[in-house]
């Protein structure tokens, strides 16, 4: 079942919700929990998928880091050579990129940067994020940059790296 009348994705892979009533419903925690209960959604799933206010960006940042650490690998799209510029590789036009991986690669830093400094679970967030971020930056960074390059989204790397730098500097002061 398609959700294109409720949710659209623009050319930058940003999710857009054209109907005002839809986000109003999902951003109202009580209404959403009641509806999920009526639909028979388990208590655990209700808590996992309902908007968590300030924690939403923290959850998305962790989810992006986990997904990238699991999914990023050498030559993810089977490009025959790394000795050619992207615009000189004809099969790039037909490569079906994993939109979930591309989203995670492009927006993890944005979600990270939007976690409020006064977020109630900030310590737990930092404890979860630190090993994931370390693994990404020590083991997977070139694969991450490759995905961004192939998707013509390399410019998003700078902001993500700035956020990671700030995170690690704050982390060192604990």
Low-confidence stretches: none
Order of helices and strands: EEHHHHHHH
Radius of gyration: 18 Å
Helicity range = 55-70%
How far from one another are the termini? 48 Å
The main sheet comes to: 2 strands, antiparallel
Structural class category: mainly alpha
Mean pLDDT: 79
Q: What fraction strand?
A: under 5%
Widest sheet: strand ordering: 1-2
Counted by DSSP, the helix tally is: 7
**Quantity of strands, as a count:** 2
Describe the protein in words.
This protein has 174 residues and is mainly alpha-helical. A two-stranded antiparallel sheet has the order 1-2. A hairpin with a 5-residue loop joins strand 1 and strand 2. The longest helix has 29 residues. The N and C termini lie far apart (48 Å). The relative contact order is 0.12.
Can you summarize this structure?
The chain has 174 residues and is mainly α. It has 7 helices and 2 strands. A two-stranded antiparallel sheet has the order 1-2.
Task: Summarize the SSE layout with pairings.
Blueprint: E1 8-9, E2 15-16, H1 21-27, H2 29-38, H3 43-49, H4 55-71, H5 99-113, H6 122-150, H7 156-172
Antiparallel strand pairs: 1-2
List keywords for this structure.
about 60% helix; mainly alpha; single chain; about 170 residues
């Amino acid at each position: 079942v398609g959700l294109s009348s409720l949710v659209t994705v623009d050319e930058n892979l940003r999710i857009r919700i054209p109907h005002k009533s839809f986000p109003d419903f999902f951003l109202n925690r009580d209404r959403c929990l009641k509806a999920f209960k009526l639909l028979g959604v388990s208590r655990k799933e209700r808590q996992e998928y309902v908007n968590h206010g300030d924690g939403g960006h923290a959850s998305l940042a962790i989810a992006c880091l986990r997904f990238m650490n699991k999914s990023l690998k050498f030559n993810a799209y089977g490009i025959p050579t790394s000795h050619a510029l992207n615009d000189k590789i004809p099969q790039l036009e037909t490569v079906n990129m994993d939109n979930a991986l591309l989203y995670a690669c492009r927006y993890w830093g944005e979600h990270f940067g939007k976690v409020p400094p006064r977020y109630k679970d900030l310590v737990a967030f930092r404890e979860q994020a630190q090993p994931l971020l370390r693994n990404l930056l020590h083991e997977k960074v070139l694969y991450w940059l490759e995905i961004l390059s192939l998707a013509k989204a390399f410019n998003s790397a700078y902001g993500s790296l700035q956020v990671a730098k700030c995170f690690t500097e704050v982390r060192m002061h604990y």
